[in-house]
Amino acid sequence: MNEIALPGCTPEPLMSYLKALGVFRLVAEQKDPTAKLSWANGTAVLHTTLDRDGLARFFLDEYRPTPIVGPWGARSGFFPGSSESSAREALNAIDAAAGSLPRLRQFAEMITGVRRVLNRLGFTEKAKDDDKLRLLRECRNELDDHLIPWLDTAYILTEDGRKFPPLLGTGGNEGSGSYVSTFAQAVVSLIIRGQSAGGVETALFGAFESQLGGLAVGHFDPGALGGPNGTQGVSGGGGANTWDYVLGIEGSLLFAGAAARRYGADAVGKAAYPFCVEPVAVGYASESEVEAGEKTRAELWLPLWDTPTILGEVSRLFAEGRAQLGRRQAKNAVEFALSLSMLGVSRGLTAFVRYAFVMRYGLSYFAAPLGRVPVKLRPDARLLDDPPLVAWIDKLRRATSDKDKTPTRYQTALRHIDRAMFAFANRSQTDDSADAGYLLDVLRAVGRAERTLANGLRFSQEKYLRPLAGLSGQWLLQADDDSAEFRLATSLAGIRSTRKNEVGPIRVFLEEVEIKKFANWSPGSTSAVWSNRQLADNLAAVFRRRQMEAFREGIVGVPLDSPRFARLDDVIAFLNDETDDDKLSDLLWGLIGVEYPKERTHPEAVDVVVPFEFGVPRLLVEESHLAFDPDYGRWRHGDAEANTKPDPDVFHLLATGRGDAVGQCVTRAARRLKSGGLIVDGYRNRARSGREITAVSAIPATRLLAAMLFPLSDRDLARVANAVLYPPESED
Known about the structure:
The protein is of the alpha+beta class. About 40% of the residues lie in helices and about 10% in strands.
């Protein structure tokens, strides 16, 4: 068996891809049943008993064109009128030549059959909308089975109407043009008149041909449409090789078959067509120019495979059009990309070429290639199929579907999520270790979207959008990029309500929600204090509000119970403004929707210098029990030799914003610790001399107050104590 590379049949543009399918289908059906097709180095490869010359001769001398007609559309050639003249002449020529050219006999018989159906139904002109459905059904019921693949490609009949898949416009028409009419005229040109004999070499092998033929190719090849920037040169050129067009239309018939019957009336038009999904404006350079919605009617994802495959298997591949995401079919471009990361497509596929059908002039569309997405198993992709996340994004997508009536900020929030998810699926095949970074981007985008919804409760409630909740705890593991921001965000987002729910979880301080069996919006909630301020200002406000509610409920100190403690060195990095506040904020908002495990996780101990003005007041956030271990000369948590007594006024001083707030705070905190039997290092000498304790670094008061909100483990609190307290025997 020969392996014939077809340089003229590449994955882009769409016509070239369809041409590869057409060459393969026609050879396998009409000449060599053992033929196979594969893709290698961006080129189709035909595996056949034919040699290169034999392949070209087959198309020139033996190829039998598929009967392709469209009596339901404009310029079909079956009715009188000047607009029908070109198509009418082509059909008459095919009918007349069939006697001497047996390869046209089947086409001529189909023309006769269509005319018989039209006469019986009494159609003397193009069918009106009310009658078109009846004509479509009669064509399918009465015409010869040879036409069925074309009918299944051109339209889909449902229980209450018909749908036109995007590949062939509206049943073989695109705007004012007709693919059916052009195909018939091309058949006359190539087979009856014998024109463009050299064009088959160009179509198959990319050989140079000076005359393209000037065909109007519709959306199949944007470069052949002509006009400014249509191709190289000033004029823009235009036109396509006639053989390209014929073989491309022939290749489109592989999209017919089981998909239409499988999905039937249960599916929207796009989902009923193989590998066809709703468009999402992500994953290509000019996203602003190719937006989802009115300007883009669908996306078509076309498979590539490197294993030689027979026609029957390729036909089943297209008939099924399977792109499974979990237990459901992928509905849009983002879900399709994710399905490739979960091997939700047929085995043996290596990549998909992505096309968007984008409006160009008037009602005309062109198929814009948007790149290739590899098929590669990425186990972490299952996290993006987390049912609560999928349901929440689906509702957000429906809520923002009306582009004209939806505020831009909500559309932007969804677009950021789509971009992050698509980037996860479409990244390089060699960087699996970077999964956490991509998942982190998704989590950040989700967090920004949640914050946007929280700031627009009227929109959220009108669209029945609930707060994000119930995400898998696996996000805490798989999205961990080992950054200070992630560790700090997980500690904050994990802050739970007190045992009797007197003080709620941190989420109720960020947004107006109530947490019962489910999370629901609670407009007017007085706990929420987050606003469009800097991160430190917001965290400081949350700390103060949580402190106030705890005091009101008779709770000593500020409750900061969390299954994830912050790492002390990360808190110090935050104090020194060495963390990314935007990243930390986004992650906090994303992680509040995660279901945390009940068991606590203790961070690793990392050596760090504890700033004096942080360590002293931090010992007064919660009531702590400290004991001194003389064997090691260090403070530890245990049976109390001294207790820290929280003092709300210590933190009130920081909240005043006064220039000396930090020094005043540390002085008062040192006095409070002394009353509990704990002496602050350096305090005694300063107090005896009448001097106040002043800040030893330039930490802003607001940032210092915000840092008090991070939960610390008993071990780290003991490290803080050892950094700022004297041993008890030093009192003597």
